[in-house]
Automatic annotation (TrEMBL):
Residues 10-156 form the Uracil-DNA glycosylase-like domain. The lineage of its organism: Archaea, Methanobacteriati, Methanobacteriota, Stenosarchaea group, Halobacteria. One of its GO terms (biological process) is DNA repair. Keywords: 4Fe-4S, DNA damage, DNA repair, Hydrolase, Iron, Iron-sulfur, Metal-binding. The keyword DNA damage applies. This is Uracil-DNA glycosylase, family 4. It comes from Halogranum amylolyticum.
């Protein structure tokens, strides 16, 4: 599948990722020059927090991924300044959804208000009871429909505490059973495990 736009930034990272970082579009979070999501100024700020939180090995235009995948809701570079149109987001939804289902990560980390709202509305049952206030939701663990969701405030808006708050949340999350898998093998003949989430 390839979008019909001239310039786009496809997903990047580990195809067997546990963590899927979801941004808005390349005009907002970078990647136009490198072809890799989250490689602009604010993207590098996010990458540094992900290194400190254990999700990346290194920061750069080709970051060292550690069971992590980066992608955008809208992978095409928007025409002109600003955000893509609503119809353009709707058209690009199929690419993002196919990517999300192919990666099948356990934890979704939407970056910024639009990505957080989209993930809450489409991959959780919490949208109607969650106010999308990114200062409040930043680095907070929310249970989704088969996913854990950890919203991230847009790095271009971070204050001094946002980096540490995200790092602490990621380190805590990684020390738990974030996969939320259960072994149903005990109900089957034989000794083989059968994990489901």
């Amino acid at each position: 599948m390839r979008p019909s736009c001239e310039q786009f930034v496809p997903g990047y990272g580990d195809a067997n990722a546990d963590f899927h970082v979801v941004g808005d579009h390349p005009g907002r979070h970078g990647g136009v020059d490198s072809g890799v999501p989250f490689t602009g100024e604010s993207g590098f700020r996010l990458q540094r927090a992900l290194v400190d939180g254990g999700l990346l090995r290194s920061v750069g235009t080709e970051p060292g991924m550690r069971r992590t995948f980066f992608s955008y809701l809208h992978m095409c570079l928007p025409d002109g300044e600003g955000d893509p149109s609503e119809s353009s987001y709707g058209d690009m939804e199929r690419f993002f959804d196919a990517e999300l289902r192919a990666i099948a990560a356990h934890v979704l980390l939407p970056v910024g208000e639009r990505a957080t709202r989209y993930v809450l509305e489409n991959y959780t049952a919490r949208a109607h009871k969650t106010t999308v206030d990114m200062e409040t939701l930043h680095a907070m663990e929310l249970r989704g429909s088969g996913f854990l969701v950890v919203p991230i405030r847009d790095p271009s808006e971070w204050d001094d505490s946002d980096h540490e708050k995200l790092v602490d949340a990621l380190q805590t999350l990684r020390s738990t059973d974030f996969r939320r898998e259960a072994d149903l093998g005990r109900f089957l003949a034989g000794d083989d495990p059968y994990f489901v989430r």
